[in-house]
Fold these 2 entries.
Entry 1:
Amino acid sequence: MAHFTKATSVKDWLNQRLAVDKVEKVMASEYWIPKNINFLWAMGMVLLITFSLLLCSGIFLLMYYVPTVEGAFYSVNYTIMREVGFGWLWRHIHGVAASVVFLIMYIHMFTGIYYGSYKKGREMIWLSGMLLFIAFSTEAFSGYMLPWGQMSYWAGMVITNLFAGGSLHADGLVEWIRGDYVPAQAFLGRFFMLHVVLVPVAILGLIGLHFAALRIPHVNNQDGEEIDFEAESKKYLAGDKAGSKVMRFANDFLSKDMMVVGIYLLFFFYLVFYNYGFAMDPVNFDPADGLKTPAHIYPEWYFLWSYEILRPFPIDTGLVLFGLAQGIFVALPFLDRSPNAVPASRRGLFKIWFWAMLCNMILLTSMGKLPPEGIFSQIGLVSAILFVVLWVLLPIITTFEKKL
Amino acid sequence: MQDSSRRGFMGKAFGAVAAVGALGSLVAMKSSWDPLPSVKEAGFTTLDMSIYEEGVMVTEKWRGKPIFVLKKSASTMEKEKGNAAAEARNIKVGDSNFMVAIGLCTHLGCIPAFRADSNDFKCACHGGEFTASGLVQKVPPPRGFDIPPFKIEGNKLVLGEVGPEFKKMKDTGITL
């Protein structure tokens, strides 16, 4: 057994038992971050803060929410919104954060794509990040079911029908997922469980993995420069703070990080208090009715691009392409054949690929919101085909990319 | 080496116990998600077919799903003549002809709306269209409306039970 001495202070007492000083160094003051970064590097912290907001507001909603088909709609729209003190605040924070968290995730992802932060030992960061994206998508979908309004019900109907696999007609599988012929009590109960227990626990674990994946390759920088963190951190600790290419995570980097977080929170709470409507679909303020489809069923904005890839094709082709669209970003580190881990601006054709992909995703998103008629159908179709073509082109153009 | 050691044996023995346990728990978990017996038992609906009016689309309910019932007028029957796919889907109860189908788009399950003026159905979700006989008029739906299992009993139609007319439709691939 380790030898313990009489503690000289509370800190010493803790140090002997938990090595708090050592932990602090490893996790914060001697965790090294490159200096050559910009505000886009703060998105990770912004996401962490947004997730905390979701967790806290969710806990308060959970105390009054009733997961039954008779009680759910009422408990959300009457009990929480009108009776519970500041219940509206928790709901609006939860709804706005659920939407904004995807905006930040997309910025975080496209930052990574632009700077090549998924290469040269950083593949696990990308993969764990994509797993987080999938987990957040599941969380968003399952949460959307809970108010049991018209959009909840019909989104649940449409999405669970995807599992029939088109011509495979796996209706048994769909009924198994729902626990009924249509979304009903069994369905609501299991999605409630997923939303408040299973998926959040998975997200917590994945966040741990995502952070752990950063430790060895370290954070990328604006020039994709390979930094000798060992040597640079020694320089820093020896007193040459200006000459070193790195800085401490805390408090150096964290102070700038939290500055961005501060600005973000002003924007976030502006939305919560004055502009929450975008996160609250008016159709979902009608109680679920299995015999009445809303005029237009569309997902929340963050799923529109993949929905638009599903929509213009016959069911089987649509499903295959939809599955491809959902999964293809995971394979990015392996489809990008170029060893250059530098900003897209210096990567020739990849620069065009990056901006074409980004613009096309925005186009798909806007088309997904519009009714599938006339010219919008055509643009959506072309855009969906372009999405596939871009992914086919990626390994080809990156194979021929000039080595820097 | 390790395979023949006691530790190797203990590892395998534990592996075997764990595998049986894991398999057993998977069976239990799968069954817990199955539709409950009460849900399955509530799956029958009887319709009195003498009450419907020609050309008026009525939505009934079976297993929580909407059922479209459309009594066809003489002019609709005239239009169907010669269209084998449409004729095969016709359900004759007494002297009346009906289109009876599950009112869910075969694409992803939205409820198409009946358009009385053009005598057809349009799905708002992804733009699919169906004729008054329940056949696809415009994709993405991969096939016409599914027909629920039915049995004709005099003037009544029992949904959920398989009668000879439905069996024939199923065997010939008219419906799933």
Entry 2:
Amino acid sequence: MSTPYYVSPEQIWEDKKVFVDRGIEQAKEVIVLAYKDGLLMVAENPRRTLFKISEIYDRIALASTGRVSEYEALRVAGIREAEVKGYTYYREDVTGKWLTNIYSQHISAIAQAWDVKPLEIELLVCEVNGRPDVHSQIYKISFDGTYEELDKFAVIGGRAEAITESLYETYKEGLELKDALQLAASTFESIESKESEPYQITPETIEVSCLDSTIGRRKFRRFSVDEIAEIYNHAS
Amino acid sequence: MLKPHDYATTDFLQILRSRCPEQVANWNQLNGLQQEYPRNFLEGTTVLALVYNDGVIIAGDRQATEGYQVGERRIQKVFKIDRHTAIAVAGVAGPCFETAKLFQVQVEFYEKMEGTPLSLEGQANYLASLVRANLSLVMQGLVVLPIFAGFDLKQQKGRIFKYDVLGGRYEEDAYYSIGSGGKDARSTLKKLFQPDMTEQAALKAIVEALWDAADEDIATGGPDLIRKIFPTLTVITKDGISDIPDATVAELFQELVSRLEQG
């Protein structure tokens, strides 16, 4: 009879972390920036139907990176939970913090289970006008379900750390939409250019959405390639 | 606990039925009741829609009656559904509003899940099933009926759909009106309607139709100049959906009144 071998909890956790890190390393980044009227969300994504940024509810959007099938299931589940809650109680009772908790519980349960692989995703739950005194909130959820609250900007994806560092130097509060988009695009460019020759972001290669706190009930807006090009031209 | 792979459907009503059935009205409970039910519930009255050259206008008065009493003076009977569609409801107020709310959530839910809006025809068909779900209410004499109007981005024109209580769905190509004053409003629209009307002409026709409905039908509310309550007029074009401001509606009615005074 063979003796079952012992693996320490630290080692199991470490292995899972390495496994997820390897998956996320290749994931394209999403940048979320607070601008004058709300939150701007920019992803390097040339696809026109498989989105990384989506509307969840009136004031809430989800930015995700990693495995598409995994975050897509969470996106759909989030919309469903939000709609059921909003229908049962009141639309304003659906909040980013509540949704973040739901995601966090689910993701951490999977990360802790011994017989399933952890989810190779990172999420940003974005919300505007959560409270009268708060302009916008971003909740960053990691593979193990832990999350943090951010208010100025947040980045997920392979080179999130490098981009965050760069944004610490370049980010300014109260940016216009066009300047915020310009900042996100040039950050992508500078990060990419360091590794190879000059790299150019064009309207066709990025996905851009915003939560605009100044528009009606549904704050989410997705920009078409033409609209991105127009904002872009104004900026440069 | 989140169950991402359950209920993989774009039908919100189905999710509601399985997740929280207490949120979905079950009118079948009414079937055992006698005909002599108390009539202390609100009923909405006249709503209408009219196609014009840039799209469609959907409108309704603001009054709800409770038997022979005015039950509510500021009720809203026109509901925006998405960026290019709206419904107006007539009949028993409670179930009317519930149908409108459910319809609006369903259409938006579909759009978010699929990443593309539900087509105008798709919306019109889905609404038919919601109307049919109220059939046992109808058997008690409690009618809930909508008019559905929207701008069809594919055909580039305004379209109107009317319904019957069995869920029948019929398209009208010019105008339609339902509710207790619906027939009166319809006669006026019949006289005033022309193909390719301008927005101004369409608004004038609607205001006159609502006036006539309020004049002939005791349940329909006219413009309330003292409380400053005016009917809802909602315009839908290719650019989106918007309400005509109260001040403009007030002017339209004043114009109509001075025209009527002159004979």
